[in-house]
Design brief:
Helices cover about 40% and strands about 15% of the residues. By secondary structure, the chain is α+β, with helices and mostly antiparallel strands. The radius of gyration is 26 Å and the shape is elongated.
């Protein structure tokens, strides 16, 4: 019974650690200092936001070494330009009504 309980606690702890490390990758800036273990508190979207939170504390800001930038989705991508040969071909064809 004790072994099962210990195993359940270990699995739960692993899940929490993974969730925290996954969340730390989402933000590009971390507040670091004596009050923060490891790379720091990586919850800031901008450097100025981090600096404002660190102001008046024994803390500073740094880039998150684990941050993974994701490309912004493009809402309406523009089509590629039409090749010159296709334009000439279309221009030489009579227009149909």
């Amino acid at each position: 019974m004790k072994k099962i309980l210990a195993l359940m606690l270990m699995v739960a702890g692993t899940d929490v650690a993974y969730a925290q490390s996954e969340a730390a990758r989402r933000y590009p800036f971390c507040m670091v200092g004596r009050d923060f273990a490891g790379v720091g508190d990586c919850i800031f979207e901008s450097y100025s936001q981090c600096q404002q939170s660190a102001s008046g504390r024994e803390a500073s800001c740094s880039a998150n070494p684990y941050y993974i930038a994701r490309p912004e989705p493009v809402a309406n991508p523009t089509p590629p330009p039409e090749p010159a040969a296709a334009k000439k071909k279309r221009a030489s064809q009579p227009q149909q009504r």
